[in-house]
Amino acid sequence: MRLTSKVVLIGTFALGVAGSVVAQNGDAGKAAPQATAVEAQPVARLSLGDEVSAVGTLRSSESVVLRPETAGRIAKIGFVEGRPVKRGDMLIGLDASVQAAELAQARAGLSLAQANFRRTEDLFNRKFVSQRALDEARAGLRVAEAADQVAAARLARMTVRAPFDGIVGIRKVSIGDYVKEGADLVNLEAIDMLKVDFRLPERHIGSLAPGQRLTVSADALGTTPFPATVTAIDPLIDAEGRAIRLQATLDNREGKLRPGMFARVRLSLGDAQSVLVVPEQALVPTAEGQFVFRIVEGKAQRTAVQVGRRQGTSVEITDGLPEGAEVVTAGQIKLRDGAPVRTVAPAR
């Protein structure tokens, strides 16, 4: 009996010890979870205008493909490809030996007609010839003058000149080539000023006017903005896309931009207003709408927000957050409502 009592006491003690260990382990399992490291920024105020964005294409202020008005063989090339030229500079000269001879012949005929008219006029004044003779001499002079002008025009057409200041492209011909009338010779581009064509939805038509300022950026040059001005608004709205076409000009005297570049356009339609904004990366989109994780007393609080306009990476908050509230900008994917968080410096 004594042995049995000892066994019972030892078993009871062992169970008590085991229960104590289990209780301690259970308490350890219920320890507070570790705080999640997140990046955060406060809700700030920003001067934000009613801005619209569009894409377009840069074009030369003036652009032309030079073509001869008459057929002939190329005798001269008066430019260096890719270099600037002035209006009136000789670019392509066709063989004009025949036209030069025709002009010389016309000039000789003109000299003879002028001398004949002077003699006839003198004789008429002295009553030696009739009025008819004077009229015939005057008509002969006019015919000779017209023939001289025609010959000069034919000779001039053998030379292709720059119609405006610009930069010549890469020529498609060489000296000695025989070209037909209207054949492509070389392109000429005026790029000191550039045009950008873009389209906006028709709902903005009441806010558009020539003279409005905008900025243009080219993907090839990063995010550098170039100031521009709206110069023309097409009176016809595209019936298929319900969009209105606009044209703006920008200064390109530094030559950083080139015609044909893809361009992004930002146009302000109204005066700037002070609004609340958060970084774009703070927003978490869902089927129900946008929300952010706001940090309140060290915990993440899921907060629904209403968004408005965008400018760069900033998004307007029209409802849901007060100024200065701290919102999570990185690490949201690991969070749930009420989870403890600790803020860390943004990764560099």
TrEMBL record:
Coiled coil: none
Family: Belongs to the membrane fusion protein (MFP) (TC 8.A.1) family.
GO cellular component entries: efflux pump complex
This protein's record includes keyword Signal: yes
InterPro entries named in the record: Beta-barrel_RND_2, BSH_CzcB-like, RND_pump_MFP, YknX-like_C
Gene3D superfamilies xrefs: 2.40.30.170, 2.40.420.20, 2.40.50.100, Helix hairpin bin
Organism: Denitromonas halophila
Every CzcB-like barrel-sandwich hybrid domain range: 65-186
Protein's recorded name: Efflux RND transporter periplasmic adaptor subunit
Source organism superkingdom: Bacteria
Keyword set, alphabetical order: Signal
Transmembrane feature ranges: none
Molecular function terms, GO-annotated: efflux transmembrane transporter activity
CusB-like beta-barrel domain residues: 197-268
Limits of the YknX-like C-terminal permuted SH3-like domain: 275-342
Signal peptide residues on this chain, from the entry's feature table: 1-23
